[in-house]
Every structure is written in structure tokens, then in C-alpha cells.
Amino acid sequence: MSKKELALACVRGIFDTDGSVYKRYSKKYKNHSRLYDHNVIQIKMNSRKVIKQIASILKENCIQVNRIIKEKECSVLRITKQQDVDRFFCVIEPHNNYHLERYQRKIKN
After folding, report:
1. H/E element holding 37?
2. Which of 5, 69, 85, 104 qualifies as a FRET site for 56, CA 20 to 30 Å off?
């Protein structure tokens, strides 16, 4: 945790294996169609301690995370602000091709 490069590499490895990128939708008002136009980064793990450490590393690198929530037995970290999603991909530099393709599809649209 003390060396920035190692901390970022650790987050990259965890995201590449246990993270996900998906489209979030917004529904402006009743009877309005859903708009799928926002990427969300999510990391879900059993270890709340590790999730909090990841959140801390991200915050130190100016990436805002949402409140950490509990889903069943897991702790979930999400990044929903698009500028923070973009910054995450610039700073963390994921290597998982599936995540990269999903992220880049949004950029091209």
C-alpha cells in the first residue's frame, strides 16, 4: 500500500479478475424509455477490508467511488460518475480485453 505503483497494480489485478463494467440506465420520468448511456465500474468481493483498501487507493488518485454497499455476503464498490470512470481507465490501465471493449464501446457512441 505504501508504493503507489504497486497499489495501482494491485487494483488493476483485482479489477481484471473480479471487476466488471456495465451500462447503467436512467429513467427520467414515468412512461419514459430507459436510456442506457452510462458505464459503471463494479468490484464485488467477500472481503470488506480489501474493498475499503481499494476505495482508499482510488480516492488517493482522485477517483470518487460510491458508498460501499453489502449484497448478500459480498461488499460492492461502484464508480458511476462518468468522469471518474474515464479517470479509472486512465490511471488503473486495466488489461482485461473484455472490460476494455465494453468501456470503449461507450466512448465511440
Report:
1. strand 35-45
2. 104
Q: Cell for 84?
A: 471518474
- What DSSP designation does 71 have? E
Of the pLDDT bands very low, low, confident and very high (cuts 50, 70, 90), residue 3 is: confident
Query: At residue 11, what is the residue type?
Result: V
- CATH class of the domain whose range is 4-108: alpha beta
Task: Show the cell assigned to 27.
Answer: 429513467
Residue spans per domain, the chain: 4-108
Separation of alpha carbons 16 and 39, rounded Å = 16
Convert the pLDDT of each residue in 24-60 to its tens digit.
766 666 676 666 678 899 999 999 999 999 999 999 9
Dihedral of CA atoms 64, 24, 17, 69 in degrees, nearest 10, equals: 60
Q: Report yes or no: 68 and 46 within 8 Å, Cβ to Cβ.
A: no
- Residue at 34: amino acid letter: R
